[in-house]
Fold this sequence. Notes:
The chain has 145 residues and is mostly beta strands. It is 10% helix and 32% strand.
Amino acid sequence: MSLKEFPELKDFDPQEHTWLQDVRWDEKNLVQAIVQDAEKHDVLMTAFMNPAALFLTVQRGEMVFWSRSRQEYWHKGATSGNTMRVESFALDCDGDALLFQVRMQGPQAACHTGRRSCFHRILAPGPVWQAEGELLFDPAQVYKS
Length: 145
């Protein structure tokens, strides 16, 4: 998503927001964001944020990440309808990770594979990774090019 889709960033300067300075950003100016269901407390996913993505998340009240592979902002659920409404969030004791409590919107699937959680691959005997959990939507239908 381009900057024009995020008008809040037009005049964004992270130095003007002192609360952002307490986060220990890594060498790429990113921090790990862990996303947890506010009611059930299961971990839904993890992704990265830069200062602007965190600012956007606070401004919009919905999760916005920084995509390392696409090098762009990623409003979670903009395509699939599985947006995440932020209830609260906390910075860990070292300042290098954030934990978000969210309420899922849409089909309740956090993962692009159509499952509730991105943590659906379990190490089974063999050992082999085995996908578990119900498909809540068909990714081929949702992510048509």
